[in-house]
Amino acid sequence: MARPTTGPTRLTPPPWLTAGLKPADTPVPRAAVARAAVALSAPLAAGLALGQPAYGALVSMGALSGVIGDTADAYRMRIFNIAVPQLFGAVGVTLGTLVFGHGWLAVAVLTVVALVSGMISSIGAVASVSGLLLLLNAVVGAGLPMPDPWWKAPVLLTLGGLFVLLLTLLGWPFRRAAPERTAVAATYRSVAALYEATGTAAYDEQRQAVTASLNQSYDLILARRARQHGRTPSLVRLLSQLNVVIPLVEAAPAAHLRAQLYGPIPAAVPACVRELADAVEEGRTGAPVLDLPTPERPAEKAVDHALRHAAAVVHTAGTEPHPASPAKGDSVDDRLGRPAALRIRARRATRAALLSEASWRYGLRLALCIGLAQALVSLIAVPRSYWVALTVTFVMKPDFGSVFSRAVLRALGTAAGLLLAALVLAEVPRGWWDVPVMCVLAALIPAFSAKGYAFQTAAITPVILLLSDTLNQQGFALVMPRLYDSLIGCGIALIAGYLLWPESWHSRIGDRLADAVSDTAAYVTRAFAADGDQGARVRARRKLYRDLSTVRSEFQRALTEPPPTGTRAAAWWPLVVAVERIVDATTAARIRVDHGAAPPDPAEVAAVERELRELAEGIRESETLVEVRSDLPGDENGVLAPLRQEVRGARAIAGPDLR
User: Fold this and answer.
1) Domain ranges of the chain
2) Where in this chain does the entry annotate a coiled-coil region (predicted)?
3) I want to staple 366 with a disulfide (CB 3.0 to 4.6 A). Which of 118, 190, 529, 576 is the partner?
4) pLDDT for the residue numbered 598
């Protein structure tokens, strides 16, 4: 019998709809706040002082693009993140300016630009921002009158981006490799927290934090290793210090199992790892002093060996690569599973973008929506507005998250931003008062961007409106049309970019999860191969954890989609966790074998691999998880016993029928 209700039922929105409205618990980036305030207000002041406020507004628009793109930590990567997208932005505004007021030609050009923007977004972070600025500036150039001659607008916008880059690099002479050193030290500290979490329910969450920290550190240090490996001793040393943390990470699953069976590991272990983190951050050298208990079990021996090895490398004053790290000239495939040389990475990425089905699919979706938006504002008798296509650009950016949730959050964020813009445009006189107002509004962008997409939209909206008002002098009359334009743009994105595409309703997350399970099966076989290459096993494990991190992100993004995609993602989420635990159990078993435990029977390994491949095929063939009671015989006291238990748990996960 149904439980009686004692009062009226509260109508609350579903979690997938409200998830983006919760501000992220992240610190405010104070340096970025200061840079944004100066970068956007100083050009306005210079323009007013020279009697050319429109020129100042264009430089500030370029600075806004630089502020949005300044997301890296390492200085050399910030040069790429800001300078390269500015070049694409200059091309975009040039194309837009040349087709301004040309009707069908403008529609055709922006549609092609949108296709290119969507396709190159799959290459990487820098290419994604470059594609965004290419399309964004093309839309602005086609929608706002720019000063003559045609080259003036791209030059002014580029100056704004270069101004942000100059402000960013002011600290380079004093900090140089500090971001990389801080990242490596943070990785060591995350490993220390992982060892403290062994044997507890917090272990899985902390392991994910370690994976994220490792990915960030390797990305920072190895991004330009092909060019700098032989010439930058500090990076070589940091690479060695980062590489020797891998054995510690590999030993953690075995330590976790040991803690579950025999109690917490000695506190000296995480304390020693934290001391190594301090040594990395401070650049200390000298003979390490380790106060560690005598190891007895295989897991304890693995941890002890990894700690002593890491301590020896961290405290070494030399800069030559340690044997545990790649030798000069080697590919960084050993850690990242991707090419080291920039030219190789660019060639493979370009080939993937041109031949990938997903790249074309996203590009065509974005092109269709931009084409419809530009046709609406260029050819139909409605007030001309670039804001419709601008809204579509932000909502439909394929690598930025769920189209549905972003459309909703964009509408809400724009509405909030317009309230602030209305207050500014109605109460603040145009002219020199724009400078302090812009200083305050610009500072909100990095502060709010860290909190979430809706908050970022609310911060950017009044800035763009204030700058565009400087160009076309419409004042308060800008506010309500921009709200209507935003709603129209969100509607186009939802209908033409979401509802009309079957993949919106039949998510591909199952295929990605199936690929991860297949890779896990291959990893199990590789881990216990009789003639296995330890380096190849380490590469496979690092690549697998990186791929699983991507799968986890895909599922978390799918959770913000409406049913059935969000419901299916929620039902399959336990399987994502189960696969991660299978990888951990495999690594723990391999570590125990390396340090004295008896190796498993090859038949046991083959049985585990067979179960995982059957699970992968089941995921590909069905949208509903089916519980399977698998029989995995083997030595219950052997090293594979925990692994077989995790595989049984994964096969026993069942989800609701979502059809």
Assistant:
1) 15-22+30-174+345-499, 179-315, 508-653
2) none
3) 118
4) 86
